Design the sequence.
């Protein structure tokens, strides 16, 4: 046998040669021109200013971007913030971070020295453009207290340990979303999903950047293979390995001795992954039998397929093993690889059996049909010199699945639009627009037209970064407008393109009162998504006219839209057919462009906050600074509990301490004009906290003027409802502003008295509280209410907004009278819904809230603020007490997404009947993962997926819950695809079951139910890459998983295929959580979730 030391050197020397673990070498062309270009991209000699110094950890940052250690400073010169320096810096690729190798002082910043001597603080806000703002900020800075005079930009470096969520061999992402490049590793190691890395992260103005990384822990071990399948195996029952870890193509088998290098990793139930594996050269005394699929002279019945078997029935399959060799053949054993699977051997080989030449033996195998879906196992025939391995398959079906068969084969019809639909030479007769309020002070929106080169690049699938280079660059002040304008254009292009997919040919309109009605197929599904104000252009077919007619949408119904054209067209129309092209109402996009420009010109300190300066409190509650620098580096702690300077009468007496602290921080408003964030994980009451803060600002700051912005009408109505229920705001003091596009019938009755009359918005200035969606709030820019009118801007569910949408609210900041933005949201839950894959790729899906919380000032910093939940409480309060879910449901999202900080306050004293439900695999643990290996299908021309096996399983669980006593209002069903939702409703109708709420994750965000059933649908990895590209399904976005599982209060049921889901880090961890806690049932698990496999035989 070989020794550990003899193999260790070989493993180390041959590490780079491992398949799948090779770092690509840079290839440089031979011409001098190409060499010089590469040098320019990867090296720079430049002049800059020191923007950050960390004396404790001995590093600094130049121009917010170039990292340097103190050891790189020439002659150990002492540098300070503001010093001018010359430096040599390099990076491995153009997308890597810069690291300075030599830094030399050129000019000392005298201003900085004087300011430190006088203990004065310098504010970056002095760069504001107008003279008035210059004097205002200078005056403020001279009298205010900075939290860190030595580090005004708050750049810092921190060592973290995190799991890899994805890695493609060149670059990857950690669990919190920060990207890293494989070549930045300190050792030659290519991580995979689940590996645990120790990374050095630079937090700066532009966000987080991994400077270097290494595996958390590496060991070299000896052991033996205790389980082995086609592509993976287990060593010593505790270490996972994959076939590509082998240094050579060798036959691996259970019991084989191996030597391996292993790294810390989360692979199912296993804590280690072998990334390099070699077998013993001395193991020749124990000859193992190879696995083969066939051998000459031995005939075995094939295929071994039970085909389809109805659920609850058993079937058997006869297998013939025939000897066609010229000698006797000994069959020593016949057995299934999975001893606990649904297959078992009836009549067969109980002991070694000799098969003479030209003779055969019969073996009978049986199948237990206990779980719906596809099942597979391997039947092993052990002969003297080999083991023949054959796959046995079965599909267990429920009779109900026949109802769900595709109505027609899938065929995605790519409609060819008639040439005249895109003919710009037609004269368009305008229609009558929907009623819109017109203000006498109204300002026109800028046109913000889509640049033709960008449109052409999208249509021709060209590289967009060539047309707009700022797309791939880090977001900064200098490219803020250009980048977001381009992203908005990309989103608009996709929306317009999606609408054009549904152009109609030779359509006929019907008269409905004063309107003409047009039937639109797919409208109920939201394909296309038409709203009031969009247009339908009618073009006479076959180019028989040079005129086209514009019809404006006034009402949207289930399968039709009601249009108004010009009066002459209404009078003359007599059933003629027209080709129809849908066009987007661009008003919302134009508002977003306007607000991006406005914020970039007036609110740099809010969108790129770089320094915290404490102001005098607006309401003195005695909350002292959390910490203060004294004598350079020492820190003195202060109390965070209030003194008796002011006493608040809480409107909601059930608030916990964290919620109260957030309200008091907002009232004091000491971080103004920087935004304040209420970070609210699921069920922690962030909207309750926001409403309490609004009521106290209204009561304690008489001169305050408040606007509350939300992403949707339902969220705005909820805030309005909570404020109205407090009975503290007079009807003359608050207005609920609605868009002209909103139907009066959709407004709740109790809110209608507070709603703004659509006649005009000119009287809004008489109200102290305005509640609106962000989109509708954008209309206030046209009446000049964006200039220093509001003092407090509250944004609820801020994580669901695109940053340009948040800019609408941020633009209301009253900078002259020290206003503040307060955002409530959760960056770990679903962000904005986008249509464009380009906009998604280049960053439009990152909300303003999420981006802000990744900057150095707002980022989590456990070392500095451990006792405050990891965040600076002057800027962020993380609510930690969740009242929604059972502790066993809440534990996984708390550990996976919220740093294990969520404290469960679920009322356990109530009668929790579902905890003792008979269907639970583990009584008392109200979580079920039901594994189903179904088939995903599509039908007709719908691209949406459905899985009949999962539909049936979901319906069965719903039926049992109704039988247990739950009502439809107690249950929710979440499915990521519209076709799955449709099929679930179809089966419930066939079973005469009452509908509960069924919808996508997005439809459930902000809601809760006693029991939640989740259908994941996906059962093949063939189209997973498409889901990732278009942000569909559960595997494309861990936030979708987080939202789905946190909707449940007492019971969570997940139906899905563990073999597909476990390829994603977050789902892998959830399946592992269920297996460990004994709440898994259904189909066979992947090998990585089965411990001590050989011992179970």
Sequence:
């Amino acid at each position: 046998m070989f020794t550990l030391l003899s193999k260790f050197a070989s493993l180390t020397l041959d590490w780079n040669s491992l398949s799948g673990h090779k770092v690509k070498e840079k290839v440089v062309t031979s011409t001098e021109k190409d060499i010089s270009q590469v040098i320019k991209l990867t090296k720079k000699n430049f002049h800059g200013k020191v923007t950050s110094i960390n004396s404790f950890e001995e590093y600094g940052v130049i121009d917010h971007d170039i990292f340097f250690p103190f050891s790189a400073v020439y002659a150990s010169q002492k540098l300070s913030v503001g010093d001018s320096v010359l430096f040599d810096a390099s990076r491995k690729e153009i997308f890597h971070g810069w690291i300075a190798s030599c830094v030399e002082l050129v000019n000392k910043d005298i201003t900085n020295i004087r300011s430190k001597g006088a203990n004065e603080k310098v504010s970056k806000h002095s760069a504001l453009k107008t003279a008035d703002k210059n004097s205002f900020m200078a005056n403020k800075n001279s009298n205010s207290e900075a939290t860190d005079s030595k580090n005004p930009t708050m750049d810092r470096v921190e060592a973290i340990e995190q799991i890899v969520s994805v890695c493609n061999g060149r670059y990857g992402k950690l669990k919190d979303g920060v990207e890293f490049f494989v070549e930045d590793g300190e050792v030659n190691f290519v991580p995979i999903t689940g590996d645990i890395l120790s990374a050095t992260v630079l937090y700066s103005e532009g966000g987080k950047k991994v400077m270097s990384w290494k595996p958390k822990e590496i060991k070299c071990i000896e052991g033996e293979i205790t389980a082995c399948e086609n592509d993976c195996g287990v060593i010593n029952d505790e270490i996972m390995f994959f076939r590509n870890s082998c240094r050579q193509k060798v036959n691996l088998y259970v019991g084989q001795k191996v030597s391996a290098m292993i790294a810390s990793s989360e692979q199912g139930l296993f804590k280690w992954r072998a990334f390099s594996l070699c077998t013993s050269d001395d193991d020749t005394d124990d000859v193992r039998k190879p696995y083969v699929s066939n051998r000459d002279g031995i005939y075995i019945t094939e295929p071994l397929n039970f085909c389809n078997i109805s659920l609850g029935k058993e079937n058997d399959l006869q297998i013939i093993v025939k000897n066609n060799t010229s000698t006797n053949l000994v069959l020593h054993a016949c057995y299934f690889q999975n001893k606990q699977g649904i297959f078992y051997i009836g009549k067969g080989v109980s002991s070694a059996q000799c098969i003479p030449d030209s003779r055969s033996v019969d073996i009978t195998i049986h199948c237990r049909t206990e779980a719906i879906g596809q099942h597979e196992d391997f039947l092993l025939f052990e002969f003297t010199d080999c083991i023949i391995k054959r796959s046995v398959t079965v599909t267990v079906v429920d009779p109900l699945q026949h109802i769900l068969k595709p109505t027609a084969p899938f065929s995605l019809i790519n409609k060819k639009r008639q040439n005249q639909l895109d003919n710009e030479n037609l004269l368009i007769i305008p229609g009558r627009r929907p009623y819109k309020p017109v203000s006498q002070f109204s300002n026109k929106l800028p046109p913000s037209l889509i640049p033709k080169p960008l449109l052409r690049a999208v249509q021709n699938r060209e590289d967009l970064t060539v047309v707009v280079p700022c797309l791939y660059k880090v977001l900064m002040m200098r490219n803020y407008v250009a980048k977001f304008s381009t992203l908005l254009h990309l989103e608009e292009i996709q929306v317009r393109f999606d609408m054009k997919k549904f152009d109609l040919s030779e359509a006929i309109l019907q008269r409905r009162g004063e309107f003409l009605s047009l039937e639109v197929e797919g409208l109920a599904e939201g394909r296309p998504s038409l709203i009031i104000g969009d247009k339908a252009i009618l073009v006479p077919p076959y180019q028989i006219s040079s005129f086209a007619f514009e019809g404006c949408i006034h009402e949207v119904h289930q399968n039709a839209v009601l249009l108004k054209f010009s009066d002459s067209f209404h009078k003359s129309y007599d059933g003629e057919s027209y080709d129809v092209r849908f066009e987007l109402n661009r008003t919302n996009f134009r508002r977003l462009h306007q607000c991006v420009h406005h914020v970039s010109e007036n609110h740099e300190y809010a969108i790129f906050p770089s320094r915290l300066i404490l102001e005098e409190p607006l309401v003195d509650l005695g909350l002292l600074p959390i910490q203060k620098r004294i004598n350079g580096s020492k820190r003195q702690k202060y109390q965070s509990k209030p003194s008796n300077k002011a006493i608040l009468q809480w409107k909601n007496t059930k608030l916990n301490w964290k919620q109260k602290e957030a309200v008091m921080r907002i009232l004091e408003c000491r971080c103004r004009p920087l935004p304040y964030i209420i970070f609210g994980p699921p069920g922690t009451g962030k909207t309750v906290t926001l409403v309490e803060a609004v009521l106290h600002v209204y009561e304690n700051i008489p001169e305050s003027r408040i606007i509350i912005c939300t992403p949707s009408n339902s969220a705005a109505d909820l805030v309005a409802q909570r404020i109205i229920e407090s009975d503290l705001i007079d009807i003359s003091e608050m207005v609920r502003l609605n868009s002209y596009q909103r139907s009066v019938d959709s407004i709740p009755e109790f809110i209608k008295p507070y709603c703004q009359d659509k006649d005009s918005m000119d009287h809004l200035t008489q109200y102290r509280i305005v509640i609106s969606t962000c989109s509708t709030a954008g209309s206030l820019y046209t009446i000049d209410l964006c200039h220093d009118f509001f003092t407090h801007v509250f944004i609820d569910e801020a994580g669901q907004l695109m940053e340009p949408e948040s800019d609408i609210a941020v633009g209301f900041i009253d900078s002259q009278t020290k206003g503040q933005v307060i955002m409530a949201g959760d960056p770990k839950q679903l962000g904005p819904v986008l249509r464009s894959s380009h906009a998604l790729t280049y960053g439009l899906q990152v909300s303003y809230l999420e981006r802000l919380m990744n900057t150095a000032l707002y980022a989590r910093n456990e070392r500095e603020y451990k006792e405050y939940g990891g965040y600076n409480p002057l800027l962020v309060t993380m609510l930690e007490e969740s009242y929604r879910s059972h502790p066993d449901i809440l534990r996984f999202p708390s550990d996976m997404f919220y740093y294990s900080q969520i404290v469960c306050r679920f009322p356990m004293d109530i009668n929790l009947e579902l905890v003792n439900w008979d269907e639970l695999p583990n009584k008392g643990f109200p979580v079920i993962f039901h594994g189903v290996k179904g088939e995903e299908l599509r039908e007709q021309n719908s691209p949406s997926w459905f899985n009949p096996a999962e539909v049936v399983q979901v319906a069965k669980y719903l039926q049992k819950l109704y039988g247990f006593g739950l009502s439809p209002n107690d249950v929710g069903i979440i499915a990521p695809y519209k076709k799955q939702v449709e099929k679930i409703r179809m089966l419930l109708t066939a079973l005469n079951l009452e509908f509960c709420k069924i919808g996508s994750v997005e439809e459930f965000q902000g809601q809760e139910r006693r029991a939640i059933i989740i259908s994941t649908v996906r059962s093949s990895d063939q189209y997973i890459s498409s889901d990732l590209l278009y942000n569909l399904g559960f595997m494309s976005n861990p936030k979708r998983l987080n939202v789905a599982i946190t909707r449940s209060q007492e019971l969570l049921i997940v139906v899905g295929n563990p073999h597909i889901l476990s390829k994603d880090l977050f789902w892998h961890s959830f399946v592992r959580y269920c297996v460990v806690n004994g709440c898994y049932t259904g189909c066979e698990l992947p090998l990585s979730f089965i411990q001590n496999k050989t011992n179970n035989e």
User: Anything to note?
Assistant: The radius of gyration is 33 Å. The longest strand covers residues 43-54. The CA atoms of residues 85 and 106 lie 5 Å apart.
